[in-house]
Structures are given as structure tokens and as C-alpha cells.
Amino acid sequence: MTKLIFEKSNGVDGINITDGDVELNCIDKKFQRNKSLNLPQMSELEVLRHYKELSDKNFCIEKGFYPLGSCTMKYNPKVNEMLASLDGFTELHPLNEDSDCQGSIELMYKLQEALKVITGMDAISLQPAAGAHGELSGMMVIKKYFEVNGELTRKKVIIPDSAHGTNPASASMCGFEIVEVKSNEKGLVDVESLKSVLDKDVAAIMMTNPNTLGLFEENILEISKLMHDNGSLLYYDGANFNAIMGYTNPKLMGFDVVHLNLHKTFSTPHGGGGPGAGPIGVVEKLKDYLPVPIADFDGEKYFMSYDFKHSIGKVRNFYGNFGVLVRAYAYILMLGKNLKHVSEDAVLNANYLKEKLKGRYDLPYDYPCMHEFVLSGERQKEQGVSTLWIAKRLMDENTHPPTVYFPLIVHEALMIEPTESENKERLDEYVSAMIKIADEIECDSSIALNSPMNAPVKKIDETLAARKIDLRYKNEE
Ligand SMILES: *Cc1c(COP(=O)(O)O)cnc(C)c1O
Fold first, then answer.
1. CB neighbour burial string for 142-165, b if at least 16 within 10 angstroms, e if fewer
2. Atom of ligand 1 at shortest range from CA of 133
3. What pTM, to 2 d.p., does this model score?
């Protein structure tokens, strides 16, 4: 195997530590290492240069526009970081007695209260560590609810064909059978199709509203009535809550269980597999089923409560991802009632871009959108350039590509979510870049097909990277 390009070790001793005071012969011979560990070695300065170089190759919101649809790559305020790094938070041990960490429990309690107001739900658990983890926990709540109520035949979960892939995955990990329901010509759940699959074996429907096309499901009240009349529950995928804050909430729409992605709407950093938080909220009758512990207050002191009769148990150790909770709480406190303006600006920005771009790219669902919209690269594909290469070409324009090929119901999809963070100048720059690329493709498809020009790698072999991933150091040995 050839030497890997990121292998930099040059054998130079990078540390300067004097011999320790541990007597080697106090370790039993059979446990002693008999050959060198063969770790990579470089000088301290070269190590720093290595990491700086890697971070320069990385793209982040501080570097440029990041309209990765459905991911809500908004600005992560630096004040969140300052607050999360206060000693009182970072030096707390999760096994401390409640009496020794009153401030942290109070913060969690108040975050739960704020999320209750924002979602309209009656109780919140902050335990799940990601959106998909929230979905799984929420579906476990639904499953247990029907078990406790003796409705054991409710084994089906209805999911629209526009749903995020995690929805069917979570429901099926819970043992549910997935029933797909089609979208209509307006990109919304088709109510007649829904009626045709609704029977007494249906436990729930999982919906995203606004859906992944960025469209508001305007029949939601009719749908929730249909479901409830059938004795079924409604699950709300609130990963993308950025469009509705302060205007409506899942409770008003008739939902029973909700998850939120604090690492999207509530401005905590994400990407690269870092920590997230996917709290779930439920209506009163499902309160006893939530994962524990939940922060509570008895009028005098704060405590972590485990006292829930039908709890699905623990889904995460200790308090969940506490540092993420601190950042999200800081964001909510900073904005207060102005969270409403976040949604206004996010929706305005998305509609502005949509209107500016729809003449040059196909827009399969031409309606006012919410926080995002989905174009199709069909026209450009006919000119020899598929959506993948439009995305690659955008990387030369100092922007992150949009989400591509999702949702599945749009061919050659380009899913664009500007968020509220961007000003008009940035949006206009993006419009110019998108139009320039459309112009280029009309004249000469080879430019896009040879992009990106400035990135370190043109196109990785995604199949190989996913199937044969090998992260071991020095794999040739
Ligand atoms: C991001 C997202 C999820 C999953 O969230 P993770 O934190 O990545 O697990 C689920 N549904 C929708 C609509 C999303 O956009």
C-alpha cells in the first residue's frame, strides 16, 4: 500500500519530559511493554501546523455561506461558548449530589420550561443526544403507551414519502412496520391516500411541518383529527423548527410527541459528528412515559426526578449532553420573545433566494416556502451537468454546497436553507454565483465537470469511504 498523504510522522521527538519517578520494575514483567508503541512523532510546531492546515481545509459558517438544507447551519453565537465554559459548569462531576449542583439543575429545569412554551408540550425530557435519538425515544414512548393500554395490534407507523430518512429508521428500530403515504401535486401529504391506509393497526404518523420541501402542511388540522379519531398518535419531527417559532407550535397542530434539534434551531454547533441534543416533548397523557431523569423543582430546591410510572427508562448516561443544553439555553435567553424574528428572517431569506433563482433552475413546487426550498437541477442535467457537479462548482465560490438528492421525491434536488444569519449582500452574492454557474453550463459543461478547482480533493470515492473505512494508524503494518 502506498504511503498515505496525511502520514506526516518524521520520527522527531516532539516532547520534552524528564524521566518520571515511577519505578518500572514495580510493574509485573508480563505487563511490561517489550517494544516501542510506534506512535507518530513530530516537533510541537509541526504538529500545530498540521492541525492548522486541516482546519483551513475545513469549511465552516465563519468562512462563508452554508445553505445546507434541513441542517440549519446558522451562526453559533460566541457568547454561548463563553457561558458553557464557565468553571461552574465544566468542573461539575455528573455523580455530584443534586444539592451540590443546584445551578445546573436549575438551568435544565428552566430550559425544559422554555421548550414547553416554544412547543406547546406539557413535559420535556432533555436526555436524547441527537435528533434521530429523540425520534427513537419518542417512538419508544408511543410503543409503550399502546402496550400499557393493551392495544397490542397497533404495529404500523405512517410516514410521508418526503420524510427525512431517520423517521422510517427510528420507527422500524422500535419494531414498527412502516407504511408510506404519498405527497400530492402541491408537495403535501395527500389526505385521501392517508385515509386509505388508516386502520386500527396504526399506532402513529410521523410528520415534519414545514416538511422537507419547506412547505407548510396546510391540512394538518384535518390530519390530526383523522388520526385521533382513529385512536392513533401524531409524532412531530421538529428538527427544523426555525420557521415557526412564536407563530405556531406542534400542540396547536394536534401533535402528541415532538423532538427538537438544539443543534439546529437553537444555535449549538454541529457537523463533524460532534455532540448534539434532541430533547423530546409530550402531551399530558404521555408524561409518565418520558425517559429519565427530568429536572424538577419543589418550590425550594431543584432535583433530578426519576419518579415516572411508565418511563421508557434511560436513553443516555447522566444529564444528556449538558454543554449543549447550556448553549441552547443561552441562545433562548438572549433572544426571548425575539425568537419570533428569527423565524421571520429565516422565512424571508428563503423566499428571497427562491424568487431570485427560480427563473434559472427548475422549481418543482412553486409556492411560498418556509425556512427552505428545493430546486431541481433537471434543466442543467439535460445540458450535461448533474446536480452533483453544480454542488462541486459552488465550492469554488466560497460557499458550502446545498443538500443534494434529498428529498427523494424531487429529481436532481438542490435543497437550500439560508437561515436568518445572512444579510442581503451575502444572499445576493449567492444568487450571482448560482446564476453564473447556470450561464456557464449553458456555454460549456466542462467547467462544472472539472470542479472544484481549489479544493484539496476533487471527488472522494464515497462508496469506498463508507464501506472500507480504515481509521487505524499505519494500516500497512
Ligand atoms: C437533521 C434532521 C434529523 C436528524 O437529526 P440528527 O441530529 O442528525 O440525528 C431528523 N429529521 C429532520 C427533518 C432533520 O432535518
1. bbbbbeeeeeeebebbbbbebbbe
2. 9
3. 0.92
